[in-house]
Amino acid sequence: MENKTSHAPRVAVIGSGISGIASAAMLKKNGFQVEIFEKSSKIGGVWALAYPNVRLQNIFEQYHISDFPWPFKPEYHPTGTQIMQYLQEAVNHFQLDVKLEHEVKSLKEQPEGWLVRIQGPDEYREEPFDFVMVSNGHYSDGKNNLRFPDQELYQGRVMTERDLQSLEAFKGKRVAVVGFGKSAVDMADFAVQQQAEQVFHVFRTPRWMFPGNCSAYISPIIFSTDSGQ
Ligand SMILES: Cc1cc2nc3c(=O)[nH]c(=O)nc-3n(C[C@H](O)[C@H](O)[C@H](O)COP(=O)(O)OP(=O)(O)OC[C@H]3O[C@@H](n4cnc5c(N)ncnc54)[C@H](O)[C@@H]3O)c2cc1C
Question: Residue 179, class by beta-carbon neighbours within 10 Å (0-12 exposed, 13-18 middle, 19+ buried)?
Fold first, then answer.
């Protein structure tokens, strides 16, 4: 879209996960006026919602805004708390304007830009912006509510990793973990660590796994091979 405005173009960034923060930082450095709208009460996107003891699968050197390296030394695979701290420091460093508890409800295209409809904690408003950056992620909505035939006959608790507030939940329990993604493998591992009575890991498709302490050495090799270096 051609920008005919005389002021610095205004950009509404939807979402304050790492994508929204990185986009806002780069736009601001390039002279745009940027506001980030975040529907939840915390920045950080998935990292603000993640279960206790979550860690980055990548190593820290591969996960940061390109011109804002980690300002403190995190663990090799940073914890969720360290990632949250990094993102908050990035917001402070780039002096980003983040509006928490502001959900973008809809966008209406205008002859020059967009009318952004925003639900704040106290008010609903419409504001014109020259551009909109959509960084709303794909894991931050509610989880699927699983329903199985005869589920009401089951006496135990059915939960997703989003419901897990404390790893103690596994203690002394018989636990079935369903799936073989990152979160499922973490859950099975946590359950064993927490002395669950028994842990069953149920999945359709097995995947290759290698221990976390190997990934420190292997993942840089994979990444540098992928990029042809
Ligand atoms: C457990 C877990 C582990 C992961 N590990 C890794 C890893 O090791 N390496 C890796 O690269 N990736 C990993 N990921 C993927 C992770 O999703 C990305 O790294 C990254 O954090 C996604 O950031 P994002 O900003 O795109 O989205 P999100 O973090 O999902 O942020 C989107 C934000 O937009 C907000 N939002 C959505 N809709 C609206 C709206 N209408 N109005 C206002 N705000 C809105 C949400 O509230 C949210 O804060 C992991 C994900 C999970 C869940």
Answer: middle
